[in-house]
Amino acid sequence: MPDLLKGLWITVQATIYGSLVSFALGLVWALLLRSPSRWVTWPVSIVVEFIRNTPLLVQLFFLFFVLPSWGLTFAPLTTGVIGLGLHYSTYTSEVYRAGIDGVPPGQWEAATALNLPRRRTWIAVILPQAFRRVVPALGNYVIAMFKDTPMLAGITVADMLFQANSISATTFDYLEPITVVGILFVVISYPTSLLLRALERRLVR
């Protein structure tokens, strides 16, 4: 059990740090895709679609096994965080896009009428309103990322599934460790989803 709790902590770390990467990078993708220049939007859209349409496990294997041959080597957990963050950033970018598009046109017009610089318009007017709209959707992707962390066992990250497999290999009992892992995922994911629904109802008032 202590090993599973240690694996749970590593799973939570991967989820938290991966989420932060996906939130930051997703916003970058969203803003770049709004660029008036096709020289910016075209390559960015290709990268985003490529990442979104390839399996997360393949991306993790590429980062962990291929990049070292090019001189780029990261610790397993760091690789997992980068992989999760990069993969989910392509989805959070769509969330940000929807949030930005949902800001009433009058807000843009008011900022223009006040002669606000474009940077200040984004920081002080548009993004705060967009963030308020996208928080529940971003939370849903955090839960999805949390449930995808067992894939990190494939690159030797000692998460819950990795620990459960190690215990099972020693005791030859797969039922109890794997069942406990499943229960831990439910115990964390379901209450979190309920909190997100409550937050969504509060924000849409």
Number of helices: 8
Work out the helicity level.
over 70%
The termini sit apart by 43 Å
CA radius of gyration is 20 Å
Order of helices and strands: HHHHHHHH
Structural class: mainly alpha
Write up what this structure looks like:
This protein has 205 residues and is an all-alpha fold. 80% of the residues lie in helices and 0% in strands. It contains eight helices and no strands. The protein has helices spanning 2-33, 38-52, 56-66, 76-101, 105-113, 118-148, 160-171, 175-203. The protein is flat. The model has no long low-confidence stretch (mean pLDDT 89).
SSE order and pairing:
Elements: H1 2-33, H2 38-52, H3 56-66, H4 76-101, H5 105-113, H6 118-148, H7 160-171, H8 175-203
